[in-house]
């Protein structure tokens, strides 16, 4: 193998993506097979430093990367040449990028890198492309300045989780209605000490398996949140889509969530504003009521010791049972308890 000079060593994390994107290995590769490999720079040279890179599963030649102040770039030949894709968007500062596993032409981009600098602009929300980066749509969270990660549902390219809390110093976090644990696992990977609660024992078991696969520790607790609640105070309390198709005291749970926020901490509430393509009638014809952000805040009955950081409504696409994409509207409320 030819000697590769130090100055040619790779400074981007792209080679890691190159190794992963080819698909799962059938067996462990002996260390001797790659012991003589070295990093080398594959470019481009004028995009700032790389903040994130992603490949296309099954295609070892196509990769994307986001720059600190250089937008999004794509290579179709494993890094020999690169093309800029993000020149006409609102922010060139990229904090997160994800390629949908179920449709690699769908790309999600979060603007605003995590580590703010005097010479780097803030982000202006989330963008999405359905044609491999040729065109982009701004899909929301325009007031978000920093996005640290995006997770795309591996079965539905229209569903994504966006981590908009990267500017917070990791501490104690509580995830209410955690389901199978995607949010809780992500928080734990960022260094948070996470407690996660759900009413479903099956969901918690699957969540624990996902945490074990990710190599993180989460305190999984089973609660009917109307009756019992995790003990303690938390620097972040997250309640994502707490809706139920039967009689359900959501305001009571959210008020208890606010009580669990430590001084200086954050309460983050995400909810639906409509049924979207899934119309489901509960028992006796009941169905959830979807409050506006202002109604959510009023229902908390907070003291003057709180400040509202975000209270917005934002649309998104969701695939319905008919296989077609529909527009669904969600809401975000983000509050800080004053120290």
Rg for CA atoms: 22 Å
| Helical run tally | 5
Distance between the ends: 60 Å
**Runs with pLDDT <50, length 5+?**
1-26
Please tell me the overall pLDDT: 81
As for the number of domains, it is: 2
Write up what this structure looks like.
With 339 residues, this protein is of the alpha+beta class. The chain has two domains: 6-163, no CATH class; 172-337, Vaccinia Virus protein VP39 (Rossmann fold, 3-Layer(aba) Sandwich). Helices cover 14% and strands 33% of the residues. The protein has helices at 14-21, 182-189, 201-214, 250-259, 293-300, and strands at 50-56, 59-67, 71-75, 83-84, 94-99, 107-111, 126-129, 137-140, 149-152, 160-163, 172-176, 193-198, 218-222, 234-240, 261-272, 306-319, 325-337. Strands 13-12-11-14-15-17-16 form a seven-stranded mixed β-sheet, sandwiched between helices. Helix 2 (182-189) packs parallel to helix 3. The relative contact order is 0.08.
Give a quick rundown of the structure:
This protein is of the alpha+beta class and 339 residues long. The protein has helices at residues 14-21, 182-189, 201-214, 250-259, 293-300; strands at 50-56, 59-67, 71-75, 83-84, 94-99, 107-111, 126-129, 137-140, 149-152, 160-163, 172-176, 193-198, 218-222, 234-240, 261-272, 306-319, 325-337.
